[in-house]
């Protein structure tokens, strides 16, 4: 895209000119997209790992899953800074593996982000209803309001959307930091009671099998950081913005996850921590400070809103990419002539998110999001191996080269296998149902939709022929 196209106002598109997405984002926006999607996992969701294996199990999986997502961030930064196109992992799959894998990866992304968006909206509604304490008040109106308003914001433009995300994500993250330092973490026993709440008898109440089971929800600490790749076609400098924004986001989340576990495990009994939907908010209430309670209430709301906002952005880009490459009807590939957003994809996914928000509970929505995310991470470990083998270092220009290859890919695949087993222990039927669903849609794509795909048009990178072809 030329400099003129970049700086032209979205409302001044010449007649007959092809309307495309705008390159207007920098590293801070990439950070806001990644951390904004994920931060809600530190306000809720991760703590269900405590129910599976105890407080110490949640800490163990926090760091093991942190290793998984550090591998994800490094792998994604290399491939996406080289394949800088909307759709993220979908764009990677169509260039490196093939159409069937690309179609499935796009569906993984859409389902992961849509169900995460649903989880966020449910959380907002449940928290407001809980705090209001009004008899007969239901969450549904708040759920609908959250999803519809954020869809409108995404419809109006990506720059405004991610500027908003940057502000509210920063506020929600600062709320965690304020809570952490307000409870005097350097002096155990003054406010925090970690030694009383986690004893040798209850540290791992279900033994090491509980640690394995905790991997299921431990993934919620970081789920969605890979969403930074969805902005690849809208950043000004992919080779700089994507690696910097993604890795800075991962460092931010690792620090936040450690603080979150330490405060919550030191203020709440593990039996209660494993069941509450609002661990940080309840930890703030346990301090007896009205200021901290109010702060963490708004922190929870803003974290959920930021996550849902980023999820709408990412799911729409994946769906838009499928339409642009004719994997789905090209109707979905339309870009708004004024706002330069994939508006039809945004509007199409809106009622789907609303429907799931009314029929699913929070645990189910989280599980479906995790399962789709896991399938995507499994693909990433295979994808980077194929990428390095087909186009070795030096054969093409890379925006970023991740170190220690192939260790990150091996670590990622190994932790994915462990997490599949953990999900099977608690939600085996959902895992089997989702696997069957992807098999069925793969058959549909192969025998019906593939004939509409123009394979030559979808390869946009000026690369040499891969080794072995």
From TrEMBL:
Domain of life where this protein originates: Bacteria
The UniProt record lists the keyword Oxidoreductase: no
A cellular component annotation (GO) from this entry: membrane
Location in or out of the cell: Membrane
GO process terms (BP): transmembrane transport
Residue stretches spanning the membrane: 21-41, 53-75, 96-116, 136-155, 162-183, 203-223, 244-270, 295-320, 341-360, 366-386, 407-425, 431-448
Keyword terms, alphabetized: Membrane, Transmembrane, Transmembrane helix
Limits of the Amino acid permease/ SLC12A domain: 39-440
Membrane topology label: Multi-pass membrane protein
Main localisation: membrane
Stated name of the protein: Amino acid permease
């Amino acid at each position: 895209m030329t400099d003129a196209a970049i700086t032209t106002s979205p409302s001044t598109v010449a007649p007959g000119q092809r309307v495309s997405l705008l390159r207007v984002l920098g590293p801070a926006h990439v950070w806001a997209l990644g951390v904004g999607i994920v931060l809600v996992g530190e306000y809720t969701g991760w703590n269900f790992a405590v129910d599976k294996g105890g407080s110490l199990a949640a800490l163990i999986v926090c760091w093991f899953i942190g290793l998984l997502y550090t591998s994800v961030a490094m792998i994604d930064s290399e491939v996406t800074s080289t394949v800088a196109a909307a759709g993220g992992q979908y764009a990677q799959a169509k260039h490196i593996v093939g159409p069937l894998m690309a179609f499935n990866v796009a569906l993984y992304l859409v389902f992961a982000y849509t169900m995460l968006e649903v989880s966020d909206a449910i959380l907002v509604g449940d928290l407001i209803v809980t705090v209001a304490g009004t008899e007969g008040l239901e969450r549904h109106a708040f759920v609908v309001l959250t999803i519809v308003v954020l869809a409108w914001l995404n419809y109006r433009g990506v720059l405004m959307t991610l500027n908003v995300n940057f502000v509210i994500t920063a506020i929600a993250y600062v709320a965690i930091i304020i809570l952490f330092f307000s409870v005097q973490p350097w002096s155990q026993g003054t406010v925090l009671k970690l030694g009383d709440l986690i004893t040798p008898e209850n540290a791992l109440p279900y033994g090491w099998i509980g640690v394995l089971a905790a991997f299921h929800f431990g993934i919620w600490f970081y789920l969605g950081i890979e969403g930074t790749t969805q902005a690849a076609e809208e950043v000004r400098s992919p080779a700089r913005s994507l690696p910097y924004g993604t890795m800075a986001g991962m460092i931010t989340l690792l620090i936040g996850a450690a603080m979150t576990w330490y405060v919550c495990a030191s203020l709440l009994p593990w039996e209660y921590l494993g069941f509450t939907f609002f661990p940080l908010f309840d930890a703030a209430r346990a301090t007896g400070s009205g200021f901290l309670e109010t702060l963490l209430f708004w922190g929870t709301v803003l974290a959920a809103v930021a996550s849902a906002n980023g999820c709408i952005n990412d799911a729409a880009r994946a769906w838009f990419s499928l339409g642009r490459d004719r994997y789905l009807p090209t109707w979905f590939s339309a870009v708004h002539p004024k706002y330069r957003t994939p508006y039809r994809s945004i509007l199409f996914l809106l009622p789907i998110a609303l429907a799931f928000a009314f029929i699913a509970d929070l645990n189910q929505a989280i599980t479906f999001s995790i399962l789709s995310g896991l399938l995507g991470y499994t693909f990433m470990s295979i994808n980077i191996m194929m990428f390095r083998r087909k186009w070795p270092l030096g054969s093409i220009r890379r925006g970023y080269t991740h170190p220690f290859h192939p260790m990150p890919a091996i670590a990622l695949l190994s932790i994915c296998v462990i997490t599949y087993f953990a999900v099977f222990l608690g939600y085996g039927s959902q895992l089997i149902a989702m696997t069957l669903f992807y098999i069925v849609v793969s058959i549909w794509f192969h025998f019906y939709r593939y004939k509409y795909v123009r394979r030559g048009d979808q390869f946009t990178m000026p690369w040499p022929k891969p080794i072995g072809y």
